[in-house]
Amino acid sequence: MVTCSRDKNSDLFFAALGGLGQFGVITRARIRLEPAPKRVRWVRLAYSDIAMFTKDQEFLISNQASEAGFNYVEGQVQLNRSFIEGPKSTPFFSTTDLSRLAGLALRTDSAAIYYIEGAMYYNEDATISVDQKMEALLDQLNFEPGFVFAKDATYVQFLDRVREEESALRSAGVWEVPHPWLNLFIPRSRILDFDAGVFKGLLRDANPAGIILMYPMNKDRWDDRMTAMTPTADEDVFYAVSLLWSALSADDVEQLERANKSVLDLCAKTGMECKQYLPHHTSQEGWQQHFGAKWGKVAELKAKYDPQTILSRGHKIFPSRAAADGVATA
């Protein structure tokens, strides 16, 4: 057993963050608790202009907005065809809401509608002040006029929102199906190119089941000592894009896997220098390319903390010791 932290055995501590189970098994962790708020003002703001969408998202994660902004912020993308062929309501959007959004997509001739999802936490004695804070913040943003969708919920209900989505999918029989997901980190300077090539290009006429997440992150929140890889571009912000597909039939699995490959091929062909989060490679060469300049350090840490290459062999990052020594394995 080894105890590690930022200050004690720090190389193992950071190696385990994004380490794909290569360096150890976490058996115990300390999580500091703090008082939880009681309620949440929860909004989704609709955009048809990708430039305004990304501008506002980057503002919301900036120091400028840190004191007066959302406690939680995330972005989503909804392809136009899903308004016609997708569900007529969701746990957040009513049938009327989706009809209005479909009209917005048609009127603006946008290939997709983009949402900023934000939440402000508060206690019952601060209802007036949170409303004032929300109004002041929304005045600074560039969403489509009139396309603010708001809910008030308890903090627990907000935290439980994914389970509510799960329940809706289970009731429709589309939860326990294959999920060929693709998670990417995109350099800030290439996010508009990604949107043009993928959402307005490869996927423009598609209607895959699932959701698409797209939101920026501050690079200084990701310690470079971690094993997790972020874009190497010298930029303060990068974007997370998650294609969280659900394959409703056997044919969908192959189709979505091909779509994912097309996205990766586009990124490579256009030199976007994207990095996969939780990637899958079938050879050590693929992993070396993924880790890039960190590969030497990753190999060094593997030799130090798992010299017999016992942990997480299925990723095929490192050959088993027996295979490396030329010993037949069952």
UniProtKB/TrEMBL annotation:
It comes from the Eukaryota. Signal peptide: none annotated. Its cofactor is FAD. GO terms for molecular function: cytokinin dehydrogenase activity; flavin adenine dinucleotide binding. The chain crosses the membrane at residues 12-31. InterPro entries: Cytok_DH_C_sf, Cytokinin_DH_FAD/cytokin-bd, FAD-bd_PCMH-like_sf, FAD-bd_PCMH_sub2, FAD-linked_Oxase-like_C, FAD-linked_Oxidoreductases_BP. Pfam families: Cytokin-bind (PF09265). Residues 37-318 form the Cytokinin dehydrogenase 1 FAD/cytokinin binding domain. The keyword Transferase does not apply. GO terms for biological process: cytokinin metabolic process. Keywords: FAD, Flavoprotein, Membrane, Oxidoreductase, Transmembrane, Transmembrane helix. The keyword Oxidoreductase applies. Belongs to the oxygen-dependent FAD-linked oxidoreductase family. PANTHER family: CYTOKININ DEHYDROGENASE 3, GULONOLACTONE OXIDASE. This is Cytokinin dehydrogenase 1 FAD/cytokinin binding domain-containing protein. It comes from Panicum hallii var. hallii.
